[in-house]
Prior knowledge:
With 338 residues, this protein is α/β, with parallel strands linked by helices. It is built from eleven helices and 16 strands. The chain has helices at residues 14-25, 47-57, 72-78, 84-93, 127-136, 156-163, 202-209, 218-221, 246-257, 286-302, 319-329; strands spanning 3-6, 30-32, 39-43, 66-68, 98-103, 118-122, 140-141, 169-172, 183-186, 193-196, 213-214, 238-241, 262-266, 277-281, 307-311, 332-334. It has an eleven-stranded mixed β-sheet, with helices on both faces. Strands 14-13-15-12-16 form a five-stranded parallel β-sheet, with helices on both faces. The model has no long low-confidence stretch (mean pLDDT 93). It binds threonylcarbamoyladenylate and magnesium ion.
Amino acid sequence: MTVLVRLDPEWPDSDLIESAASIIRNGGLVAFPTETVYGLGADAMNEAAVQRIFEAKGRPADNPLIVHVCSTEMLGTAVGRLSEKARLLAERFWPGPLTLVLARNSKVAASVSSGLDTVAVRMPGCRIALDLISSAGTPVAAPSGNTSGRPSPTTAAHVFSDLDGRIDMILDGGTTNIGIESTVLDVTTDPPLILRPGWITREQLAESVGQVEIARSEEELKRSPGTRHRHYTPRVPVILIEQTTPHSLGEILKRHLKHGKVGFIGHSPAGLDDPRLQAVILRNDARDYAHSIYAALRELEDQGAQLVVVQGISDKGEGAAVMDRLRRAASEIIRNSE
Ligand code: TXA
Ligand code: MG
């Protein structure tokens, strides 16, 4: 049975946090909110507990997990010595949506790192998450709390719908603030290498430590095993329109409406009055897209859309992370529609 526990995100009840922490200490699984998406947590030092994460999610064993810590002392138990750049980045961006790939401390369960000699670590910027980790007294390994292949969860209800009966507890702290996953930065190399774009942008990182590269080649991406797997495979095809005008958008939607129910997520009202069209209109803005995109995709799927058309945004700044996720989700990308 999966117990759902509601918590005040600002002032979480300490007895309820302690009951979740004792599950973690005893090798169980607790889903919890972070500022990015909900995570599915287990004691990162307990091999059997970490195995349960992979089983519950149906996650391939070669896709390593992020370890969450609540203090620099706890960080020391999970990683080797920090380089000067790693220390600067942790100081500047933690707690927050930046994951650092560092040398692994051998006390961390081997399957957390899927056999690599590195470990990905972050300190989440969310009171419930920090209280849980601190109360558990151990680093918490936590991938996103979805079944492997589904969009990351931004509400407790999303976790419940994917993992009910497979995990012990879900801490419900409301909708997550950011809505897409953290930036993953490899700092075992110099210059540091972005393995997964996220809310912390390359420009922000460069302000702290100078040159930062973005992984592009196959060779570089091999260092981020997660990117070998499609980020998620929607139940229905997603068509991404990178840039378009409202006119061409209408044409594309009309074409697909001939064949059934169509979902639309975009920032231009589609201008079509068709009962088979279900539209979610967002602001033309990276924050609004990040915050709402996964929930909108789940909702349109649940409402029976046979396909979802997504209107993209500029991939400057934070938009790069949003567009990265949309390109991975898309089965078709329309680059230059007329
Ligand atoms: O915002 C987030 O990062 C959320 C919350 C819960 O913290 N977590 C998350 O975890 O998105 P997950 O498992 O869905 O994604 C982890 C990513 C994967 O792309 C994985 O390949 C990469 O981090 N990763 C983990 N350990 C790594 C390592 N040692 N070296 C390179 N990449 C690693
Ligand atoms: Mg994930």
